[in-house]
TrEMBL record:
SUPFAM superfamilies: JAB1/MPN domain (SSF102712). This is MPN domain-containing protein. SMART domains: JAB_MPN (SM00232). The keyword rRNA-binding does not apply. CDD domains: MPN_like. GO terms for molecular function: metalloexopeptidase activity; zinc ion binding. Keywords: Hydrolase, Metal-binding, Metalloprotease, Protease, Zinc. InterPro entries: JAB_dom_prok, JAMM/MPN+_dom, MPN, VirAsm_ModProt. Residues 2-146 form the MPN domain. Pfam families: Prok-JAB. One of its GO terms (biological process) is proteolysis.
Length: 149
């Protein structure tokens, strides 16, 4: 289960909408697996990141690819540690596509953190779904997403 407050969710979706028609992305930091709720990640902050994907062809552009640079991960990890938190997930948008992970998403993901995908259609965020990569890394499983007040 991934829990995020309404205000952080809105901060995230504004960033994703602003990035339209390209994919936009960022990092979720928060609390991982507290002992009373194993497998429950609580988002405490949202780190907005530029999509570092460089277009290599017309088909593989930032319209359907995203990349968070290693530097941004390191910075987010340091920021999380400083606040006694962890990186609990990564989020990105799917412009004019469903909020389901692509084959490319699967290949660049790893188990243990949440992948939050938001469908942005015509510049407006629509559906949001959270996904976990199976330990076998062969497929994602949907996890419940709770937007709290
Ligand atoms: Zn994707």
């Amino acid at each position: 289960m991934l829990t995020i407050s309404r205000s952080l969710f809105d901060k995230m979706t504004r960033h994703l909408e602003a990035g339209y028609p390209y994919e936009a992305c960022g990092i979720l930091i928060g609390e991982m697996d507290d002992p009373t709720h194993p497998n429950h990640r609580l988002v405490r902050d949202v780190i907005l990141v530029a999509n570092a994907w460089e277009a290599v062809s017309a088909r593989e552009s930032r319209r359907n690819r995203y990349l968070i640079s290693p530097d941004e991960y390191v910075k987010a990890d340091r920021e999380a540690s400083r606040r006694g938190l962890d990186i609990v997930g990564v989020f990105h948008s799917h412009p004019d596509h469903p909020s389901q992970p692509s084959e490319m998403d699967r290949r660049q993901a790893w188990p243990g953190i949440s992948y939050l995908i938001v469908s942005v259609r015509g510049g407006k965020a629509t559906t949001a779904q959270a996904w976990l990569l199976r330990n076998e890394r062969d497929a994602f499983e949907e996890e419940s997403l709770v937007i709290s007040d």
